[in-house]
Q: What sequence folds into this?
RNA sequence: GUGCCUGUAGCUCAGUUGGAUAGAGUGUCGGCCUCCGAAGCCGAAGGUCAUGCGUUCGAGUCGCAUCAGGCACACCA
């Protein structure tokens, strides 16, 4: 389109004063192909009103002047007002569906990201308890992005950082210790502590861990022994260092296993499970710290080591090493990101999905990466808003020590398909409010069934075409309409022209049906573009929307027009359309990690 | 107080880089099973796009202000 317009400067008298470069810039920046909201305006449209400033002509005049010069293969163009509308020929539309139909290419597959190597980190929960619904949102979002990017030709590595190093793991171990004491009737849970603020995890899974630990007799004896020896000391010292270390590892392993199993069940794939403790033990953290020091971006104050993050856009300088010599969480995270930047794959983008509660963190990490000499453009942070729970009409924030709705509970209640579809069908920018009392509505009224039903329906039609027909009242059998081999042969040999004749010509006297069929074809054709968009703007919800739109078109078409009609050739042509639709719908659902059942 | 996100139909939410008449599901009301699954289809009602000003030929979309809600502002992780 742009290419066609570039030589047309001479068409307008007022434009002679412009240089070719100026004209070029105007056209390139001004011309945008868009899809009109109303189909009577064509399949695609270009608004040329912006040329009025340069040509000193009214937009409709410009449009009609340009029109004769626009001969674009596969399209017919018309000028209305300030718009030039393009209508694709049916043959060209059907042509683009052939690769999907014939199985030479997956629906929507494209190369828009073929030069990208993407690293995606998401979920990254603490191994101190089960995953909750909020984690589920990141899992659904991240995993869908992985699928979409891959469909766009990118190489993607997904990674989960296991935060198994900090204070929260000690709290976890202590919690198990307390539960063990409670079970042995040595102390109540929680143990009241004077003047000490002590965090502990109250969940039943902690008790389970303690009980499991106590099943070994020598463990029971050890705990009893330690308690008797050191019972009078301060609370944190109750459990000996060795025991705490052991309980930490046991808890970490058990919780990690729990999370891994659940994420697998949630069809969320991670290539790498990175232990934070490993970053410390292997010296990665120290190495990054040394590099920061050598870059001269650190300074000492009040006995702590700081990074001058304000010099690269942060609003405060941050502590890296506390005055007691231990590292802050930031230090470990900076090291982790530094490590990701340094990996052999040399990722084009390093993407993180964070909850909105971490947004204050963006400038710090970005600043640190810049200080380390990395291109901050390569770091992409997707901030997702949180999931709030509504319990008995009141909002509560979800958190480990507050009201919790585990992802497992939700899956049990509504199933993986409904949960994933529901979580991923709204934009990451909007806060989700989940009414626990209406949890079933996330199930019964879930639009995922609407779209799954469309898929099952399409499969049903294909089944009917190849199966014997049994009269339910008389029990009489008549032979199947088609046999599979003939259909496959027909499919293999079909051309866009022949398909168009059989599919659309019969509807020429019936504009309503004709438009329904055409609409459906057009939507099928636009799938690739939608997959590209969803990948470009990191928005899987566009795919969810698409699946619903396509389902709606199909249900409507189904009601208006019988696929297995009397004319066998026409029926075959319609079956082909149903086939493409089935494949496209299944692909859309797969990009969201949702199954496409053949019957329901 | 400062920063980020949000405010669109009764409810839950779409609306990609500004474009032609504002979109869907759900709910409400009214129709449709003598042919491929009614988990469906067809139709109706329902809107000051939070409010005001601005930029533009053109604003739900961009800017500023106000109001309302969410989140964050540690030598915690």
A:
């Amino acid at each position: 389109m742009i290419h066609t317009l570039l030589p047309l400067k001479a068409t307008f008298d007022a434009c002679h004063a412009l240089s070719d470069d100026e004209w070029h810039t105007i056209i390139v920046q001004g011309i945008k192909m868009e899809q009109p909201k109303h189909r009577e305006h064509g399949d695609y449209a270009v608004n040329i009103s912006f040329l009025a400033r340069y040509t000193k002509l009214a937009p409709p005049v410009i449009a009609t002047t340009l029109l004769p010069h626009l001969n674009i293969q596969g399209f017919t163009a018309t000028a209305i007002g300030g718009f030039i509308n393009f209508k694709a020929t049916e043959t060209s539309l059907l042509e683009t569906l052939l690769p999907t139909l014939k199985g030479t290419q997956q629906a929507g597959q494209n190369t828009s990201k073929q030069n990208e190597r993407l690293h995606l980190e998401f979920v990254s929960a603490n191994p101190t308890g089960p995953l909750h619904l909020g984690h589920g949102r990141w899992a659904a979002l991240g995993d869908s992005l992985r699928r979409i990017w891959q469909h766009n030709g990118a190489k993607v590595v997904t990674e989960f950082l296991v935060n198994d190093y900090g204070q929260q793991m000690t709290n976890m171990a202590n919690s198990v210790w307390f539960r063990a004491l409670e079970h042995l009737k040595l102390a109540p849970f929680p143990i009241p502590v004077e003047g000490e603020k002590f965090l502990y995890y109250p969940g039943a899974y902690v008790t389970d861990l303690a009980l499991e630990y106590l099943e070994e007799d020598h463990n029971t004896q050890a705990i009893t022994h330690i308690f008797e020896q050191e019972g009078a000391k301060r609370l944190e010292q109750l459990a000996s260092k060795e025991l705490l270390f052991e309980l930490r590892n046991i808890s970490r392993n058990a919780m990690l296993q729990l999370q891994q199993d659940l994420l697998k069940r949630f069809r969320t794939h991670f290539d790498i499970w990175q232990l934070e403790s490993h970053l410390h033990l292997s010296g990665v953290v120290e190495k990054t710290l040394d590099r920061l020091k050598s870059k001269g971006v650190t300074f000492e104050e009040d006995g702590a080591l700081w990074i001058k993050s304000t010099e690269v856009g942060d609003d405060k300088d941050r502590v890296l090493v506390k005055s007691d010599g231990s590292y802050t969480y930031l230090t470990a995270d900076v090291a982790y990101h530094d490590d990701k930047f340094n990996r052999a794959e040399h990722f084009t983008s390093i993407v993180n999905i964070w909850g909105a509660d971490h947004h204050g963190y963006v400038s710090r990490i970005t600043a640190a990466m810049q200080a380390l000499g990395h291109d901050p453009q390569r770091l992409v942070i997707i901030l997702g808003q949180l999931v709030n729970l509504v319990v008995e009409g009141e909002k509560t924030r979800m958190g480990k020590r507050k009201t919790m709705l585990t992802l497992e509970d939700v899956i049990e209640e509504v199933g993986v398909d409904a949960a994933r579809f529901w979580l991923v069908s709204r934009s990451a920018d909007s806060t989700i409010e989940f009414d626990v009392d209406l949890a079933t509505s996330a199930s019964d009224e879930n639009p995922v069934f609407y779209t799954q039903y469309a898929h099952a329906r399409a499969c049903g039609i294909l089944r009917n075409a190849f199966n014997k027909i049994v009269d339910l009242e008389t029990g009489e059998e008549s032979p199947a309409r088609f046999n599979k081999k003939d259909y496959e042969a027909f499919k293999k040999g079909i051309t866009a022209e022949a398909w168009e004749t059989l599919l659309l010509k019969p509807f020429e006297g019936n504009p309503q049906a004709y438009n329904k069929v055409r609409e459906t074809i057009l939507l099928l054709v636009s799938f690739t573009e939608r997959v590209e968009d969803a990948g470009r703007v990191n928005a899987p919800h566009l795919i969810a929307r698409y699946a619903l739109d396509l389902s709606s078109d199909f249900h409507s078409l189904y009601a208006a027009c019988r696929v297995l009609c009397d004319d066998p050739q026409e029926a075959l042509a319609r079956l082909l359309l149903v086939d493409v639709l089935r494949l496209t719908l299944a692909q859309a659902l797969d990009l969201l990690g949702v199954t496409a059942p053949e019957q329901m």
About this structure: The radius of gyration of chain A is 31 Å. The CA atoms of residues 9 and 15 of chain A lie 6 Å apart. The longest helix of chain A spans residues 241-265. Chain A has a mean pLDDT of 87.
